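During the reporting period the student researcher (J.K.) took over the structure-prediction task from the postdoctoral fellow and processed the backlog of single-chain submissions. One of the processed entries is reproduced below for the supervisory committee.
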Amino acid sequence: QPLTITMIYTITILLLIAISCKAECGGSNATALTPFNLTEYLGIWYQIAVTKGFEEVFERDLYCVYANYTINPSDNSKVVVTNTGYKGGADGPKDVAVGSATQAVPNTAELEVTFGNAPTPSPYWGIKMIDSTTTGQYDIVLIWSCENTGPVTYGETLWILSREREISTADYQTMVDYAYSVNINVAALNLTNTEQKNCKPVY
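J.K. obtained the following structure tokens:
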């Protein structure tokens, strides 16, 4: 049966819808946490795991990676992000990257982060939080970043961060399961654990 104009139009629309879904960062329906207390989020977060692609580009051979979030003393609407790791091992030379973050939406874990000379900030969303069973404060967070890099391509990164250098297997699995539940393909991202043993104390 030959294709009619209507059939061609319908196929074209379906293709455009498919492309649009692809462009929406893999079709994930993840949303940033709200309510969210930025002040409570400040301080040290240890990297438990990160996607392999991010590690290979930005953290190759780094150990004991952590981030410190502090209010910018010159502009309290901004947060200074200081990422630290040790090259080659826990006793290796310190590797530091400093960036800046702003809260894109008040009361929401939707941050925009810039490092170096990047022309535009990158999204940095807290999408799942586990509170401490002893303090009730933020304790483990799942961070998701996704950016369209072309009409049908995107870059995606996932982090698990914690106030402690180690988390339980159950809490780790909770974060992975949640990512899958919002259509983030954790296996495809190749989530990789960060070495956090024999690390120097952080003050």
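The committee noted the following: Helices lie at 5-23, 38-41, 52-58, 169-181, 186-189.
J.K. will present the remaining backlog at the next meeting.
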